[in-house]
Specification:
The structure is a single chain. The protein is built from six helices and seven strands. It is an alpha+beta fold and 172 residues long. Strand 5, helix 5 and strand 6 form a beta-alpha-beta unit. The model has no long low-confidence stretch (mean pLDDT 93). Bound molecules: magnesium ion. Magnesium ion binds next to strand 1 and helix 2.
């Protein structure tokens, strides 16, 4: 069976990317998810603001563009990124993706955490990510699920996140 493609699609290459990240939950840290600070009894530990959702998104973007991973571009321990706002990291990653000749079509993110409830903050996260990436809010998916109390995430020792992205670029 032959795949029908429009003239415009034939001139483009599309790339898919996958990102995954996990951070520990500790006392005395802010909880920042999807660029939004969320009230909680603990926060995620890390060198930057430890925004696990945005780190997964950045890794998906870099992977799709063939640009390595977040650690290559923002080494942990580098003082420039100490307590960095991960929205700024996302903006820098988007610049690198653009320089490599790609534009972002959509992204879809999943947070895996037992608590707190994400639904009240979902729209704010989508808007923040849309503003940083140039997508419309409709092109930014943010979902959350629990780990059914299984494993380290289930014991609330940390949170995990996954992201997928689709990039479009001109054929070389
Ligand atoms: Mg991380």
């Amino acid at each position: 069976m032959e795949l029908q493609v429009s003239g415009e699609t034939a001139l483009q290459q599309v790339r898919v990317g996958l990102g995954y990240d996990v951070h520990r939950l500790v006392a005395g840290r802010r909880l920042v998810l999807g660029g939004v600070e969320i009230p909680h009894d603990r926060g995620l530990d890390g060198h930057s603001d430890a925004d696990v959702l945005l780190h997964a998104l950045c890794d998906a973007l870099l992977g799709a563009a063939g640009l390595g991973d977040l650690g290559d571009h923002f080494p942990p321990g580098d003082r420039r990124w100490k307590d960095a706002d991960s929205v700024d990291l996302l903006r820098l990653v988007m610049e690198k993706v653009g320089q490599a000749g790609f534009s972002l079509v959509n992204c879809d993110l999943t947070l895996i955490a037992e608590a707190p409830r994400i639904a009240p903050h979902r729209q704010a996260m989508r808007e923040r990510i849309a503003a940083a990436t140039g997508l419309s809010v409709a092109e930014v998916g943010v979902k959350a699920t629990t780990n059914e109390r299984l494993g380290a995430v289930g014991r609330e020792e940390g949170m995990a996140a996954m992201a997928v992205v689709l990039l479009a670029g001109r054929r070389p």
